[in-house]
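Hello support,

Our group uses your service weekly, and this is the first time we've seen a run hang past the timeout. The protein is DUF1508 domain-containing protein. I'm not sure whether the cause is the sequence or the server load. Input pasted verbatim:
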Amino acid sequence: MAGKFEVYTDNGGRFRFRLKAGNGEIIATGEAYETKAACLKGIESVRTNAADARVDTLDS
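Update from on-call engineer: The timeout came from a worker crash unrelated to the input. Re-ran successfully.
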């Protein structure tokens, strides 16, 4: 089963998204947005930018 984004309203009435793996586990969460449209744009940004993003490890 493929992963999916879920859009929901938090306790403060703002919109958030979470990315769930195919097994239902939450693997990423987004910040709070004032509008649903802005939240959907946030999802599109993740889709666009994550494909080629590099991984930086910040070890101390």
